Amino acid sequence: MKKILLAAALIVLMGVYSPVSAGSNRKQQRAAAEVVARKQGFYKDVFMDSGIALTSRRELPAAPFLGLSMESFVSSVNRHKPATKMDSLMQTKVMIGDENDTNGILLYPDGAPRYRMIYMNGGSASKHGKSLFKEGRDRIVKFVKGGGSYLGTCAGAYLASSGAYTGKKSRYTKLYLGLWPSFVHSTRLSKSKTAMTIPKKSSLMRYFDFGKDGVVKEVYHNGGCYAMWNDIKPFPKGGEILSYYIFNDTKKVKIDGKPSAWAYKGGKYEGRVVSCGSHPEGVKNGERREYMAAMMLHAIEGNGVPQPKGALKAGEVREMNKRTEDNDPAYTRIGDKQYHHFTVNVTKKCKKVVVSLEGYEGENNFDLALFGKRGELAFSDNTTYKSDAKGCDKQLVIKKPKAGKWYVSVHCQTTVTANDSFYGTEYSGRLDVLNGVPYKVSVKFE
Question: Which of 77, 135, 285, 401 is most buried by a 10 A CB count?
């Protein structure tokens, strides 16, 4: 099944770009296809933040180019005008939550990432950070620490950092996210264009060859930054430089050879953070779009590894009925299109394993599925055993199982209906799934 999905993804990608037009050979196309195809465990691929004090962008050309699904929040005004009261109310509803979704759009009820990646637009990092409030900033940090990835350009790169330098002093540290555990430095260059050089060993070269010279020309730059580090915030372990500026006009600024794109991953369970000081995000074709696409692929490739909720034991019914507010993720309800993973230890004497799933009375009008596989996490595209009929209540029967560690997953197939609106994406339909579906799961050995 994995090979079929990978082949399908490769066909889709090759239908979008060719090795000639995209500067990408078959090996690079396959690497891109593998990343795109790895969708399991998330509601959708990309969430774009075009909120208060950011560019009110509604399209991200690299997303459809790669075949990635996307949703967004878009402020009603551009970054140069003050936000309206409705802008603030809508952003708070989306990013922090309301009664229909107390965890906010980025997170599942247990705090796991709901999207594979968040993209943060350009604009004013400090103003947007302030508009998110501490709760909104904490949601984004939790998203990345839980395995979701982050890509930010210009203001998004500032916001991801631990602090910005414009001269000898740092500023706005409290309003930033600290996802890049070092500093950035302002280029002091506005309304200009720079070129980027991408080293042969850069992770971006996994997906495109950028004209085989590794140079991307005329990338718009407006007040962006470059990565920096010092004795206070040294270059972090897990960090990497993806590209460098080419800018020879020393009469303006001296940024030639400074890091223009960089990345950081804190561990296998965390998502990857990718930052870029310039603006390739709005370009609809050519190497600049490929530059943006490569950064998106690298970010998503760095999604954190899912962690099982715990072990299922014979004679014990595990009740997954906690809410977000209970702060007990190991026993919290499941969200839309989410997977909950559990382990089952099977001995040599075992002849049959029966996993039972049961909904709660009054809250059982959802579709939950069961999957099982030995030795690795079970998803719908790699599972050995499955029970995915409509409804909550079902059993998964594994006859003559091999001894060892098995993985059982519960998958919520019920989801909301997404609609385009003035403020980006709004939901209708099964809104009750956003606060999670309670269920009971147990195992029996025979």
Answer: 401
